[in-house]
Design goal:
By secondary structure, this protein is mostly helical. It is built from 16 helices and 4 strands. A 4-stranded mixed sheet has the order 2-1-3-4, with helices on both faces. Strand 1, helix 3 and strand 2 form a beta-alpha-beta unit. Helix 2 packs parallel to helix 9. The protein starts with a helix and ends in a 14-residue tail after the last helix.
Length: 405
């Protein structure tokens, strides 16, 4: 235990004295959690600009335009004389969609005929396309429902009977776990988990690359401390630091940005403990592969993009090939993100995420075994440690063969 505590203190000192590691392992967590959610702070895209091509110019067509403009999802930005003119403005990114009202719109409705309204939206940007189409369809369906109710009233039905006949089955939509239906609530908590994994890997990789540059022991052993105690001490240092980051991210920043959190902080920390140990074990294993700290940062920064797409929350894992899902399961972030979202946002208990929890403990054992093999194979004595007897004046000098009497 004394050896472990010695390594633990030495590793914490190394983290806070190496400015590059401090920037990644400490400052990056605070900066990223403050800066990353800013572009998504509005949560929902609103007031999508829409053009109108009104070929009828009737009171009913103008009512439809007013209803569309009243929707929070779209905003009528202007009118176009023809569909070709509107298409040119959409191509020039001056509008996201077009509402085309055909000629004889009002006359055909008054005759009881069916009228088709054209809704066009730019599908090259799926989020804008969804908002534009949803807003326009809502306005058209609302106007259509009102017309149908008036027809039934004209036939002699009272208003409540006409409304019941128009919509015999009521439908109420409520978004669970993401009431605002916002993109930030959906993506940011998962990115927080990935942020902890990647900064852990980069920090350990930079330390390993520094030792390689200096020709020091890649195991980071302190004097005659064994490899096992060294690994436990180094892991404890990073685990202590990142449990503090967990409290900061999920105890403070989640509430700071107003994200819903149904799970308690204790359950989140208990679930994330094997995630952090698995990430540390992975980082210890990878740290033996780098010959410079710059190489570690370049390679591990690249894996961030791979890990985020393989995690299964930005794109469903069911839609991925089997070999991609198998590869994704080796990243602690895959099980970590899905599990922490269930605990934090869905209010799941640890028993309900025991599959992910046990898998993370399995990854912990696997990566620590790999790290132990690699550190044992590639670890070599520090030059200072190797010659400590020659440098220590209190140690007896070694006997040297000489021809002199």
């Amino acid at each position: 235990m004394r050896d472990i505590c010695t390594v633990w203190l030495a590793e914490l000192k190394r983290i806070f004295t190496d400015h590059g590691v401090t920037l990644i392992a400490v400052a990056a967590i605070a900066i990223y959690s403050l800066v990353y959610p800013i572009p998504y702070s509005n949560q929902v895209l609103t007031e999508t600009p829409i053009l109108v091509v009104d070929q009828d110019n009737s009171s009913l067509s103008r009512k439809l335009i007013r209803m569309a403009d009243a929707s929070e999802l779209v905003s009528i930005s202007g009118r176009a004389g023809s569909l070709d003119e509107a298409r040119q403005q959409v191509t020039a990114n001056q509008a996201a969609g077009v509402l085309v009202i055909p000629a004889d719109f009002e006359r055909r409705i008054l005759r009881g005929s069916t009228v088709t309204v054209g809704l066009y939206a730019d599908a090259s940007y799926l989020l804008i396309y969804r908002q534009a189409l949803t807003g326009l369809m809502g306005a058209v369906k609302t106007l259509s429902a009102g017309i149908e109710i008036r027809r039934l009233q004209a036939a002699g039905l009272p208003q409540y009977r006409a409304m019941t006949a128009r919509e015999p089955i009521g439908f109420i939509s409520r978004a669970l776990f993401n009431p605002a239906e916002g993109y930030a609530t959906y993506v940011v908590p998962g990115v927080f988990v990935l942020l902890m994994q990647q900064t852990l890997l980069i920090s350990l990789g930079m330390i390993g690359g520094t030792w390689s540059e200096q020709g020091r022991s890649r195991s980071g052993q302190q004097g005659r401390i064994g490899l096992g105690a060294t690994m436990v001490g180094r892991s404890a240092a990073f685990l202590t630091l990142y449990l503090g980051h967990t409290i900061f991210l999920f105890g403070f920043m989640q509430r700071f940005w107003g994200f819903p959190q149904m799970g308690d902080l204790g359950s989140i920390m208990l679930f994330l403990t094997p995630f952090l140990t698995a990430s540390i074990g992975m980082g210890l294993a990878l740290s033996t592969l780098f010959r410079s700290r710059e190489t570690a940062m370049q390679i591990l920064l690249f894996t961030s993009l791979v890990a985020i797409f393989m995690a299964g929350f930005s794109w469903p894992s069911e839609a991925m090939p089997d070999w991609v899902r198998a590869l994704a399961s080796l990243f602690p972030s895959t099980a970590g993100i899905m599990g922490v979202l269930k605990v934090s946002q869905l209010g799941a208990s640890l028993k309900q995420v025991q599959g992910e929890w046990y898998w993370l403990w399995g990854l912990t054992g696997f990566y620590y075994f790999c790290a132990w093999l690699l550190l044992r194979r590639k670890g070599r004595p520090d030059p200072v440690e190797k010659n400590d007897r020659l440098l220590d004046p209190e140690q007896p000098k070694p006997l040297v063969a000489s021809d002199e009497p």
